[in-house]
């Protein structure tokens, strides 16, 4: 059941403790890493002189990076044997940095088992993309086998699988069906997702269609009333002319079919799905367990009780933490298997970073106020989970949102076309921010909270791009046509910001400062900054490459949290459950509790 290594660290480390000790030292002492993972934001790429590229990238790296083809750079960072690289060979300090990032990145290879897995019927696959099919097939088999191993090794059978944030319940539907036939509790906060999931349950034959007894006359009149009078045929007009007798009214249930609940019938030896609507604000599953015990008692011996496994495919942000904490907080939870994602949605337990280091820029000088407020909450459910990271070097380890957003990237999967597309989008957005700054739409803000004023003179340290950023303007996405040129992008952005109701605060100042901008001025910005697009793509690639370590740190923190509860947790580990090419967030955090004493 337990893999040879509790963390999939590279073979250069002799033990988990060796890996963890060196990982924590690296992320807190490497200036280059801390700059690339939290100290750079694309909005501010062109708003300072010297530019971010020349300020944050070591001098000896810059010429080599600018002459290296973007896809070749990706290969060198991710795949090639750096010791055998030929001319033009990267600087030795860059090669050492590449080696460092690689040795602190958890291994993501996944041995394919597709040919051994049960196939999903077409009814079960309705609504799934190939990525989801891959995830559901692999994870359903994984957690089912995990439950079997737990029972075989400790005689501690799992009675229910609780899926955190079940969404459309693709995973739960597979587990409740042949060959697994599991009892599933799907916990979901959005009512429309539960409604849609129940419709898919009927299609997949996990539930039965509701039997609807209708008064045919009244039902036809209801349909007629929904058709414009000039489009009704002769029979419909005759039906509409007849009055409804009082004796008929009580027999009329004219609700659409999708408003009737699907029918779930428990049968011995077959799977069952129970939906629980609600948002989980912590790992406490008391309400969920009460519903299971009150509505679906376990049909075994009188001594039997509810024994849960908490599971989730890609639970966003803190929801992963709630799933992991559930093993500690609930006696009924015997195991967990949680695959996290959306690290940018994590809150901060320790508050925002302290800025004694110039490399970690404030969480949201370059983003938005909501996350800044979240950062200041000192949320007990946020990152980090483990005591080890909370107390490391007394101050603890913090990751700002820029670092966590970059950890959501999948640079191993970037293609040339995809890379060029988002490099272009980032370039356009960075130039637009420079235009906003030049025209007074936004201002520079120093990290001590002061605002830069025109004509003021600051010390060189105060002027450093690492100590200053610009006010955010959250633009969001534009239509595809806006990404064909800088001119189209600027015009599309101005149109959105001055016409959409979402931008009431910025609308007037943007109209005032941007309305007289000419096409010639936009062309001049493109002429001036176009040659520097390679600077942006090079540093963005380095950021995404480095952030693989950020994800490794987040996952390691979750493992350390389980490990610190050794009085309750018998085994805990991390391993891959998906093919990275299909599903990059492919690391599952597993915890198995010490056997629960029988009554």
Describe this entry's structure for a reader.
The protein is an alpha/beta fold and 599 residues long. Among the domains are: 114-207 and 271-344 and 555-593, Vaccinia Virus protein VP39 (Rossmann fold, 3-Layer(aba) Sandwich), CATH 3.40.50.150; 216-258, no CATH class. It contains 23 helices and nine strands. The strands form two sheets. It has a seven-stranded mixed β-sheet, with helices on both faces. Strands 6-7 form a two-stranded antiparallel sheet. Helix 19 crosses helix 23 (533-564). The longest helix is centred in the C-terminal third of the chain and has 32 residues, at 533-564. The two termini are 26 Å apart. The model is unreliable at 297-303, 354-374 and 454-463 (pLDDT under 50).
Structural class: alpha/beta
How helical, in percent, are the residues? 40-55%
How would you describe the shape?
globular
The largest sheet is: 7 strands, mixed
Return residue spans where pLDDT drops below 50 for at least 5 consecutive residues: 297-303, 354-374, 454-463
CATH architectural name of the domain at 114-207 and 271-344 and 555-593: 3-Layer(aba) Sandwich
Calculate the terminal CA-CA distance, rounded to whole Å: 26 Å
Mean pLDDT value: 85
**CATH level 1 class label of the domain at 114-207 and 271-344 and 555-593:** Alpha Beta
Number of helices: 23
Strand order of the largest sheet: 3-2-1-4-5-9-8
Instruction: Please tell me how large the radius of gyration is.
Output: 28 Å
The CATH topology of the domain at 114-207 and 271-344 and 555-593 comes to Rossmann fold
CATH superfamily of the domain at 114-207 and 271-344 and 555-593: Vaccinia Virus protein VP39
Please report which band the strand proportion falls in: under 5%, 5-15%, 15-25%, 25-35%, 35-45% or over 45%. Answer: 5-15%
């Amino acid at each position: 059941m337990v893999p040879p290594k509790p963390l999939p660290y590279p073979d250069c480390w002799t033990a988990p403790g060796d890996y963890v000790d060196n990982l924590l030292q690296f992320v807190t002492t490497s200036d280059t890493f801390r700059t690339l993972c939290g100290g750079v934001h694309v909005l501010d790429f062109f708003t300072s002189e010297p530019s971010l590229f020349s300020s944050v990238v070591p001098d000896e790296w810059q010429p080599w990076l600018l002459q290296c083809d973007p896809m070749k750079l990706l290969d060198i960072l991710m795949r090639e044997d750096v010791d055998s690289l030929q001319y033009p060979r990267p600087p030795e300090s860059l090669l050492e940095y590449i080696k460092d990032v690689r040795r602190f990145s958890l291994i993501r290879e996944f041995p394919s088992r597709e040919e051994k897995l049960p196939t999903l019927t077409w009814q079960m696959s309705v609504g799934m993309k190939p990525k989801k099919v891959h995830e559901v097939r692999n994870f359903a088999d994984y957690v089912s086998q995990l439950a079997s191993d737990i029972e075989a090794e400790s005689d501690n059978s799992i009675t229910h699988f609780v899926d955190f944030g079940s969404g459309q319940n693709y995973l739960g539907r597979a587990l409740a069906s042949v060959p697994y036939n599991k009892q599933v509790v799907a916990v979901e906060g959005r009512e429309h997702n539960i409604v849609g999931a129940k419709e898919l349950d009927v299609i997949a034959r996990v539930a039965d269609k509701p039997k609807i007894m209708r008064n045919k006359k009244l039902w036809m009149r209801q349909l007629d009333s929904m058709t414009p009078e000039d489009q009704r045929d002769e029979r419909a007009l005759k039906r509409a002319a007849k009055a409804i007798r009082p004796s008929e009214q009580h027999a009329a249930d004219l609700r659409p079919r999708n408003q009737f609940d699907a029918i779930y019938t428990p049968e011995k030896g077959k799977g069952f799905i129970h939906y629980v609507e609600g948002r989980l604000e912590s790992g406490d599953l008391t309400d969920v367990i009460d519903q299971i015990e009150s509505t679906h008692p376990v049909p075994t011996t009188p001594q039997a009780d509810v024994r849960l496994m908490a599971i989730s495919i890609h639970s966003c942000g803190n929801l992963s933490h709630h799933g992991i904490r559930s093993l500690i907080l609930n006696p009924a939870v015997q195991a967990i298997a949680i695959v996290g994602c959306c690290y940018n949605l994590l809150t901060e337990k320790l508050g925002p970073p302290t800025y004694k280091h110039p490399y970690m820029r404030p969480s949201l000088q370059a983003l938005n106020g909501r996350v800044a407020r979240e950062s200041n909450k000192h949320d007990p459910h946020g990152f980090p989970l483990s005591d080890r990271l909370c107390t490391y070097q007394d101050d603890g380890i913090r990751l700002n949102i820029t670092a966590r957003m970059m950890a959501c990237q999948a640079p191993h999967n970037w293609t040339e076309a995809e890379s060029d597309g988002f490099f272009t989008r980032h370039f356009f957005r960075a130039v637009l921010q420079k235009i906003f700054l030049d025209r007074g739409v936004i201002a520079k803000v120093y990290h001590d909270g002061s605002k830069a004023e025109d004509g003021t003179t600051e010390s060189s340290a105060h002027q450093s791009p690492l100590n200053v950023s610009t006010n955010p303007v959250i633009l969001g996405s534009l239509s595809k046509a806006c990404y064909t040129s800088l001119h189209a992008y600027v015009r599309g952005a101005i149109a959105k910001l001055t016409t959409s109701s979402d931008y009431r605060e910025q609308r007037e100042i943007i109209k005032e400062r941007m309305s007289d901008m000419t096409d010639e001025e936009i062309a001049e910005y493109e002429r001036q900054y176009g040659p520097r697009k390679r600077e942006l793509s090079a540093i963005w690639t380095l950021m995404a490459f480095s952030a693989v370590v950020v994800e490794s740190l987040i996952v390691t923190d979750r493992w350390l949290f389980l490990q610190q509860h050794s009085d309750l947790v018998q085994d805990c580990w991390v391993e891959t459950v998906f093919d990275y090419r299909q599903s990059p967030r492919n690391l599952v955090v597993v915890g198995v509790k010490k056997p629960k004493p029988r009554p």
